[in-house]
Automatic annotation (TrEMBL):
EC number(s) recorded for this UniProt protein: 7.1.1.8
One Gene Ontology molecular-function label: metal ion binding
Family per record: Belongs to the Rieske iron-sulfur protein family.
Name this polypeptide is given: Cytochrome b-c1 complex subunit Rieske, mitochondrial
The gene coding this protein: RIP1
Organism of this sequence: Mucor lusitanicus CBS 277.49
Amino acid sequence: MASLARTFASSLSKRTYTSASASAPALKRFYSIAVNNKEEEQKNRNASGLMNKSLNTISSQSTMQMRHNTTNIPDFSKYKKVKNSGEASRTFTYMMIGATGLVSAAGAQATVTDFLANMSASADVLALAKAEVDMSAIPEGKNVTIKWRGKPVFIRHRTDAEIAEANEVQVSSLRDPQTDAERVKDPHWLVMLGVCTHLGCVPIGEAGDFGGWYCPCHGSHYDISGRIRQGPAPLNLEIPEYSFQDDKLIIG
Ligand code: FES
């Protein structure tokens, strides 16, 4: 109410043609004009407020932008991908893949080489793999048994009579048919493993019904060529790998 009165007074003071003796319609019109002026003033004030708010927002944004602009941002332009650099990039990729493959292959080869070097037999083991026998120390008609790779080896220096006896046998009648020539390199020297082919016992030399070897475990008889002639053993005594070097017999 006080505000309305103030407005009215202001309107009166602004109008030069008003007088104290104004009529009721005139007063009404004055009042209407005053109200309209008040509404316009309010509108202007609102608009001004909005504008002030917007200006404040813009001002704060500008301030923030100015603050951002003060930050020292590094220049990354030299790291940017150059146009048409695809070919160079591909070449570099291929080169890297090739280099990686080469390094991997070299590493694998070194690993395999080391592994094989460790797995292969050493010199002392290889020396034990072979046995050397002085043949001149074995008289004719005598047996010698040596140990080779943990197994007994029978060496028989056969006489001519024994060779003839071995060749007289009817091969087709044998359980494990083999001629004497197939079992020896030199007819005077019979070399074979001293392991019974039945269950692995060691037969006795110059024994049995056929003048060769006899296995007492289950009664197998072998002839002068080491062929099974009687008993449960299924096969002839095994012939190992051997060779002659001068007057030496090399087994293995
Ligand atoms: S092991 Fe020789 S006969 Fe059985």
